[in-house]
Design a protein that fits this description.
With 517 residues, the protein is α/β, with parallel strands linked by helices. The chain contains 17 helices and 23 strands.
């Protein structure tokens, strides 16, 4: 039992009953009141002075690829921030000298931010004088590009059959360019050298520590393959997990027709497995999301990865076995198709299902989502880091429908915020909140300013609403009988202004009342 006192609570979160102290007992907030009163009720008790600082519920990133964040910090080259092809070449050559990897795998480029403004292709990658397969993964992970050795090792040629829901792109001479999208990327990635258990464990441990530093006490890893799922279970048994993790296994892998078998539902104090993941389309920044209006200056409408009847059949089996469904859907065509399936699923179970991202949506789609009872995990940080891509590729009328956070809140739809890192570089929730309330891109341009959120809405979306998507009723608030997951900030006021969002630092983190930072 611990007594915390001398702290600030945000004005918008203050209850009618004023308090300046709280007690944590058995991992939960158990009592609130005046410091002297609580101190006298429970002598002796551990007393912790928070020195007048602001406290918030711990952040819950409802969509972040934990192990991939860790992978970029350990075994994979991070290309985020590169400016041109020559810099890509130099980084790959230096990486190869430092790390003896059988297959050079790198991630993080964004062609719009390269001087060349195009995706590097096979011809360029073949100029890198390394006798190994080389694969570059775009920051969105929906597009990859490969050198000739990577294609050879994957048995990809001009005659290779293109998987449904994917692309093998060709150059001006009708030869394979080395660029693959969506479900076709599995033709290459399924041949990558397998990581060992110890390597996965290291990725998760490294990422977990970084999440804690940012005040993230809970996170959803939204596309976990069977091997990784077993790693999470084993780490849970070994008590290596510090944060609460909702692991969502993927059901249909890329590059093959077979589905993964149904996993078992799993629930412990720190690990939950009760939701299954599907991908219905691609990404907006790379122009592979399935949209009704063609991308700017093209006749291209993106890629619909799932066939509706197959999706419905597969998801029905999952729902009948007690699972919730989470589906990646960014373009309006994909969102409508997913909601078609969710309407059918609602006849089997009243369990609400999730849509991940929800990128382009008009009022009709939003009302439909409300009526069906969809839950949404979306990413305000996309406006900041990827917004310039959106402006470059989406027609003006459609741009006004991009990530309509405010309308979703006003419709009363459960909306949680997240980062989708490492699709983006910055997964600090305060930066995500800043993006939600400003709607400014990295270059300072605005996107749909009428969709700006308040700071309070955004904090709730990163805490209480994310807990709703996890199906946890007593998480995400500083309230009696709620899990004592909270953060202490280097901030001494009970109101946060927009200008302060990028300055606030997390100083202490408590999970279940136990200090982890």
């Amino acid at each position: 039992m611990k007594l915390f006192y001398n702290f600030k609570i945000l004005k918008d979160f203050q209850s009618k009953n004023k308090f300046n102290a709280l007690i944590v007992s058995k991992n939960k907030f158990s009592q609130f009141g005046e410091f002297v009163t609580l101190k006298n009720l429970y002598p002796p008790i551990e007393i912790i002075d928070l020195k007048g600082r602001l406290i918030l519920p711990g952040f819950n990133d409802s969509h972040i690829h934990i192990w991939k964040v860790g992978n970029l910090m350990t075994y994979m080259l991070d290309l985020s921030g590169v400016n041109n092809f020559e810099e890509i070449k130099s980084r790959i050559e230096n990486f190869n000298k430092t790390y003896n990897r059988k297959w050079i795998i790198v991630r993080g480029f964004n062609e719009l931010k390269l001087d060349e403004k195009i995706i590097p292709d096979r011809i360029f990658l073949d100029t890198i004088n390394i006798d190994k397969p080389i694969t570059l993964i775009r920051n969105c992970a929906h597009i990859i590009t490969n050198n000739s050795l990577a294609l050879k090792h994957s048995n990809i040629s001009n005659s290779t059959e293109i998987p449904n829901g994917g692309e093998i792109r060709r150059d001006s001479k009708n030869n394979i360019s080395g660029i693959l999208t969506e479900r076709a990327i599995g033709l290459v990635m399924n041949n990558f050298p397998k990581y060992e258990y110890s390597e996965y464990e290291k990725m998760i441990l490294v990422a977990q520590d970084e999440l804690i530093k940012k005040g993230i006490t809970s996170a959803t890893d939204p596309a976990v393959h069977p091997e990784l799922l077993e790693v999470y279970k084993e780490m849970d048994k070994k008590k290596l997990l510090k944060i609460r993790i909702n692991a969502i296994p993927i059901k249909i892998p890329d590059g093959v027709n077979e589905e993964y078998p149904l996993p078992g539902i799993y629930k412990s104090e720190l690990l939950t497995i009760n939701t299954l993941k599907y991908f219905s389309d691609g990404g907006l920044s790379g122009m592979t999301a399935a949209v009704s209006t063609p991308y700017k200056n093209t006749n291209y409408n993106g890629v619909l990865r799932l066939e509706k009847n197959q999706f419905l059949k597969s998801a029905t089996e999952c729902v009948k076995n007690g699972f919730k469904i989470a589906t990646h859907a960014i373009g309006d065509v994909a969102i409508n198709m997913v909601m078609d399936v969710y309407e059918e699923l609602s006849k089997i179970s009243n369990r609400k299902n999730r849509i991940e991202h929800f990128g382009i949506a008009d009022d009709k789609i939003i009302n439909r989502a409300k009526n069906i009872g969809v839950e949404i995990s979306t990413q305000p940080i996309f406006i900041k880091e990827l917004g310039d891509n959106f402006i470059n590729s989406i027609n003006e009328n459609e741009l006004q429908k991009v990530y309509p956070f405010k309308k979703l809140f006003e419709a009363g739809i459960p909306v949680s915020f997240s980062s989708d890192a490492p699709v983006v570089k910055d997964y600090n929730p305060f930066v995500g909140i800043y993006s939600a309330v400003t709607r400014k891109t990295d270059s300072g341009k605005s996107i749909s300013e009428n969709e700006k959120c308040t700071i309070t809405q955004s904090i709730i979306a990163f805490t209480k609403n994310s807990a709703i998507l996890d199906g946890v009723e007593n998480k995400g608030e500083i309230a009696e009988n709620y899990l004592a997951d909270f953060i202490v900030l280097d901030y001494y006021k009970d109101e946060i202004t927009g200008n302060d969002l990028l300055k606030i630092k997390v100083e202490e983190v408590f999970i279940g009342g136990k200090k982890v930072l």
